[in-house]
Amino acid sequence: MLQPRLWLVLSTYVLLGHAALAQDWPQWRGPNGDNHADPSTDAPLRWDLTTSENVSWKTAIPGYGHSTPIVVGDSIFLTTADEDAGTQSVLKLDRQSGRLMDNWVLHRGTLPERIHSKNSYASPSPASDGERVFACFHTDDAIWLTALTFEGREVWKKKIGDFKPQRFQFGYGASPIVEDDLVIVASEYDGADSGLYALDVQSGQVVWNAKRPVNLNFASPIAATLAGKRQILLAGGELICSYDPPSGRELWRVETTTEAICGTVVWDDRRVLISGGNPDSGTWCVAGDGSRNLIWDNQIKCYEQSLLTISNYVFAVADNGVAFCWRTVDGKPMWQKRLFGGGVSASPTLVRDRIYIASERGTVYVLAATPDRFDLLAENQTGDSIFATPLAIDDRLLIRTTVIEGPKQQQYLVALGQQ
């Protein structure tokens, strides 16, 4: 009787371990790269920061940034910058209580001289392979990637390359991702070092470098499986490209989109979609099987924010505050509805059958993720401005928001859960 019981206990621990891993949010757009919360997690429909209704905790964040946090193990990690002190840092918070545990300064006195007024000095989200945290900063006229242990010890620091845009000094925003034993970083600008770089997670050595157009671009790479093949996808420079993760070899490209893209590529089965940009505005859908076909496009512009897909449909919130749903197979409009007067940088997040959309004015809209009709479920004022994308984990919604407190701005990370 002892052996079956022991097997049951061990199996239970294994299952719990897998469940815990599934509940982590280790990088930009989550474990699957699609900005979908784990189906087992939930988030409240309504909350109020003033009355603390459904507010699990609220932690003041030193400095300022637009990066979305990641959640790994017992901790939350996010980047920040203190313009007055000239520092760029990684913060560590307790996953359950939100208590600020550490502030690790990685760079001091090397902030970019100029960035766009809607950018920050800490816009890329960190990433983790489960053992290390990778933080990417534009600093000292270059892109730097640092690997840290969960206790804050520096494992390695690597200069990816120079980053000295000549035409536009708008700063940087691409988040690194981890794919197997590689951490992948896009560093694209109008200079010779413009490229997509893959570094070994343990040593920081460059494994491959895929040359990119000599063109200022802000998009983050993402990993996806399309047509049975694992791929790294990246848009911008009037291209949508696919790369082989182990080697960096280009698998296919479609010559479409526009020069500058900020959003991250999304996909639906066999199709790849992106929206942007500058100087041309549009949303583009291409085949993801390497056939190099443009399936459909339109002139709707989602510049900073990414799209959100479910099976056979894609949702969008345009720069002018209008929400859309299109059928991915042919781009047929399913519905469109104005949500607000414009100003959106955060990407929509799927939590079960609901979509959470944060505006730059601090309002979070909750929509039903239904293609057959527009259904606004709730509106929640959450501070005075939001640029970071919300995420849902542990039955909580994590939102980085800015609150105007007298003459000062104070950022908070808030955890919202049904009380």
Automatic annotation (TrEMBL):
The keyword Protein transport does not apply. The keyword Metal-binding does not apply. InterPro entries: PQQ_b-propeller_rpt, PQQ_rpt_dom, Quinoprotein_ADH-like_sf, WD40/YVTN_repeat-like_dom_sf. Residues 125-326 form the Pyrrolo-quinoline quinone repeat domain. Residues 1-22 form the signal peptide. It holds the Pfam family PQQ_2. This is Outer membrane biogenesis protein BamB. It comes from Novipirellula artificiosorum.
